[in-house]
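Researcher: Next entry in the queue.
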Amino acid sequence: MDMSLIFLVLFPLAAALALLLVPQNSIRKIIVYASALAIAAASIYLLVTVGSAPAYFEIHAELVNNVMFYIEMGIALYILYISVKFRNYLTLLLIVLQSLLAIDYELAYAGSAVAERAMFVDQFSVIMALIIGVVGSLICVYSLGYMKDFHEHHKEVKDRRREFFFTMFAFIAAMFGLVFSNSLMWLYFFWEITTICSFLLIAYTQTHEARNNAFTALWMNLLGGLAFIGAIWYLGYSGQPIAELDKLIGSDKAIALLPAVLISFAGLTKAAQMPFSGWLLGAMIAPTPVSALLHSSTMVKAGVYVIIRLAPVLQDTFSGLMIALIGGFTFLLASAMAISQSNAKRVLAYSTVANLGLVVACGGLGTYEAVWAGILLIIFHAISKALLFLAVGTVEHRIQSRDIEDMGGLIIRMPKVAVMMLIGMAGMFLAPFGMLISKWATLRAFIDASPAISPILVAIIAFGSAVTIFFWTKWMGKIIAVTYLHKMVEDKVSGEEWIALTSLAALTVGICVLFGNVSSMLIEPYIMETYKGLGQSISILSQDSTMIMLIMMGMIFLLPLSMLYYRLPRRHLSPYMGGRTTTANMRFAGSAGMQRDLALRNYYLESYFGERRLFRPGVILCIGLIALMLAGVVTGVGI
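Model: Structure for this entry, 639 residues:
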């Protein structure tokens, strides 16, 4: 099994290097297809071969550690160079501080804290590997067709597809390394690789706006990286010989809490939680496959991954409760701000920030129920959000707009893509799809949480879910609206795009049917291994999973049957337009005998839910909660 882990880390990197060297599009296509298939197959093989208990692998590789350290310093020098070149002195300061801590730890403490078991795999790692390997690979395949269309539509952008695909596959390799790393220094190394990859991808078009947004992502994630290396440095400075993730999680809270909170802070920055959500919104300037990769299978998932990993340390602590509140308020405020957005990618971005907030809240609570719900949220969100981002990218190239108002009648113009978008949206908030079940599990975990915080979190998820329904349903209504004088524009969608879209749509439905199996085979064994002695409680959870699975399967078959109702003969009425004479094609007589089209527009309620109204208070609130989080762990409150 250790060879499969090494393969999943090194093979995507080898594919990345090959794609960097090969300029021909035809050969690039072969490499991407073959690599995506191999990565997905290896991820599924890992699922089949993983045991019920975590497997740790001893790797005494001084050479590997040295190579990683030199690569870290090389990345630091590159960031220094671009910071000076573009006069971004905040990133300059952060990378200098981060590098000084890394060098000091390497020289002073690395020899006394050696991670003998540098790699590991358990059920949670397998879940993450499947998300990275299957969803990430499909995004790379989709990119073949999308990037060709992208450069046809944006001839002013230099064609740098070699660098693009290199960075995409390097990103996937880094994510595999991150979820398989038990060594804290290895985990930090791959963490930093994801940071630089995101910077390069966001800045792909090399415009002034793209570069500024990329630097925003860079400094925010460098701030998190500084906290991460600070946690490792603290363990060395305090004389605690902890160099492995599992030992950190299993150690006494008096020792583990401060480094766990610092790493969780890094997770907040990576997961774009308020006040750091701005970088993910700015990342929407990048090509759509970048957005899909960042939101579904890499970058932001790295942030919630480490917080869920550290949940046992955060449980029943004041700092953990503050993390839960940060996630909860991020969910509520980001969901509300999504209402005011008409740009489809910004709606998806705010939805991502919001749903990640729920995962963070679950990790902050740290109970076994909360962790179960958080992992469910990660799974269902990754698949549905990847499908939605890729579908929006395809629609944008066909109708030359990503504005929701321009997607009216999409069910007529692009019926197959529209149906897939509807599946993705339903997957985010409707029964029988998984996000609704995940939110139910989250609500249950919140109810069973600490009495001091439970009412707040329950109110947050209730009101946040309500506004979620608002922005999804109005977008769905626009897509299925019957319009006239629109022609089909779906015939030019590339084969690569169809492969990715149909696969993700099938996965969105399929994961509902397999929900019980995923829970019993992967999530529940991980929970039982992490929280020893649950026994009776986890069996009740399993019974709930079986009941939910049966309900979901029943609804999966009931929904298509219900559509037969609309095939029955029925009376159609002409539209009412305030007494004006109307025609069958939705036109009415305007002034001076002019025939005018009927135009319908959604409510966006910017005066209530606009960014100007909610973003700044949210930032101030979450900064205050972060200050309390850090103060709590420093003063020892709630340990």
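Model: Strands lie at 55-57, 119-121, 587-589, 595-597.
Researcher: Noted, moving on.
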